[in-house]
Fold these 2 entries.
Entry 1:
Amino acid sequence: MCKTHVLSVQSAKAPFEKTTIERRALRPDDVLIDIRFSGICHSDIHSAYGEWGGGIFPMVPGHEIAGVVTAVGSEVTKYAIGDRVGVGCFVDSCGACEYCLRGEEQFCEKGVIQTYNSLDYDGNPTYGGYSQQIVVKEAFVVRIPDALALDAASPLLCAGITTYSPLNKWNAGPGKKVAIVGMGGLGHLAVQYAHALGAEVTVLSQSLSKKDEALRLGADHYYATSDPATFAELANQFDLILNTVSANLDVDAYLSMLRVDGTLVNVGAPSQPDQYHVFSLIMQRRSIAGSLVGGIRETQEMLDFSAEHGIIPQIEVIRADQVEEAYERVLRSDVRYRFVIDMATL
Ligand code: NAP
Ligand code: ZN
């Protein structure tokens, strides 16, 4: 066992406190990671505020973990002390079901073990990355390429894979018109991946304030959704709309921008149900879909792709005592484009 400093909340919406927890003693297939940086995902806010229900408290959020291996179990083969590594949204799965075997552990039939806010297979709560150390099975650890700095790499572990995976699954590429809704942590990476994959990329943001940045990151077009004319102008345009927004949208209005056979893929996860008219689907044979992060193999592929294509999260590094202020700024869409906690300040 090893004692480690963490930032935790005792109950939904409670303030963050500096406390300590015990990480488990290394099992033969575990690695101990000294966490250097931890990104703040909007899912951390939904979870710490109890918006998705069923939160396990006290909670230590954080599933965008970048750090360095400081010890390895006796049977670890993939990693050695000093390796630069990452951990994303989950830390264990059964390893034997159809989905685990095909490398989509997030859909594990036994239930994937999330990095935090989960009970592991022994019934112990998991605690996430707002922490100085974490113990993780080596099979759920990925390697951070040398070309990526650890602070900038951390958001890739959730925001990166969550956008890279559906863009590939729904064939964003040459000849495809792709819209990204919301230029936040996920959205600003989605723009870069869709562009690198060869698609024609449109950003749909609430205001024009992020236009220059979006164009610099690879967007071909940019529209403000606060302007009602946007929806009429873009009717029947897109093959794919990737919705990264944390709140409910007027789904019919977004569906109206899809071509025949186009798909609206939701990764944004508002706590309340969406509503839409089924005729918005029927008349143009459109689809609505969702996507959950991505498997370990694809997460490594995403990191290597990011290094190769120079896809780098735009981050603002903060101290451990600034997390609450950062949450409030994320809720105001006042983040350019991901907060990352420097864990040395804990
Ligand atoms: P974020 O940084 O807050 O970005 C969300 C963006 O959505 C904002 O920057 C804003 O962009 C736009 N937005 C916010 N409120 C809006 C509203 N009321 N109407 C229209 N647009 C609004 O959050 P994030 O970390 O990227 O996460 C986004 C969502 O994805 C969250 O719900 C999170 O839980 C979810 N998520 C899902 C998965 C998954 O596996 N499916 C993984 C990670 C995160 P503009 O300023 O450009 O309008
Ligand atoms: Zn996340």
Entry 2:
Amino acid sequence: MQYQDLKDLYDLPLFTLLGKARETHEAHWPAAEIQLCTLLSIKTGGCSEDCSYCAQSSRYNSGVAPERLMEKCQIVERAQAAKDNGSTRFCMGAAWRGVREGTKRFEQVLDIVQEVSELGMEVCVTLGELGPSEAAKLKEAGVTAYNHNIDTSPEHYPNIVTTHTFQDRLNTIRHAQDAGMSVCCGGILGLGEDTEDRLKMLEVISEFNPQPESVPINSLMPMPGTPLAEEKKVDVFELVRIIAIARIAIPKAKVRLSAGRTNLSEEAQTLCFLAGANSIFYGDKLLTAKNPAVEKDLALIDKLGMTPQAPNRTLEAPEKDDAKPAEPALCSPDG
Ligand code: SAM
Ligand code: DTB
Ligand code: SF4
């Protein structure tokens, strides 16, 4: 969806926008279903990149100690526990710039994915940059979706990250899609961006061909020691508007209310679900930051009469529209 159309949605009275988002939601999704996803940081900290929101960058004194890649058996144990607790998607994150075929760690990741995928949940990984051959190997090993966020607008991105470009992010997304993986791509609100940046981010995401299978909307968790540690909180109504617009612009995607739920009241989260969010990270920890307690989430889901979604193991990547250009319209070659 083009910027002006997104802006027109943004400018609607909130109830009109929510009405449209609801209508879209119910045309594509069961009204009261929510997907529960479990996150696990399989390789924490010590990252070479300088993403200014991230506690895992080695450039900042965030207090997150660098760790080695977790052992396969521990990861599989956690995946089994997630399944037993009702999660239908298991997302493994690694604090790497990227992965390269032929390296020991990539072979280890493929082995881990293979075993986790046998548990029958959707398997998502987020490992940083990928080339075509790495993407093909991950798909073959059983990854159902690759998470790679663009995080903000192309214009604001260089203010947030300097060690890789917006175009690098787009290239990885293209490689994941070309390998037949579904893509999970979203961003973060609260990086000092303005409304135009937020809508431009949604423009890029909604113009992917095919559109992503899921769209995580994170609110910045300000991490001590990072350059954005003192950034101010995102206004709840801004968050709700962005979720509603994401729902309308990317109707078939799971819109995931991601980082930042610990700062949201139950009522605020309910407004986000009403606006079209139909997935959450479930479990007391995100990668390094806190997430609401499992019991609290289950109680809220129960109070709202929502039901956890069944896994969709086939998770066929959405079809490409051959009439549209393959690359997002907004991007310039040098990012
Ligand atoms: N290294 C890989 C990468 O950059 O894609 C994977 C891990 S990275 C931590 C995954 C995503 O987590 C980021 O793209 C960002 O959207 C989100 N994230 C990281 N730190 C965050 C924070 N402090 N608050 C909110 N979201 C955050
Ligand atoms: C996403 O968009 N959010 C998740 C997941 N994808 C990998 C990560 C949130 C990280 C929050 C900060 C932390 O835990 O360090
Ligand atoms: Fe590294 Fe990913 Fe954190 Fe950036 S967001 S510093 S690439 S772990």
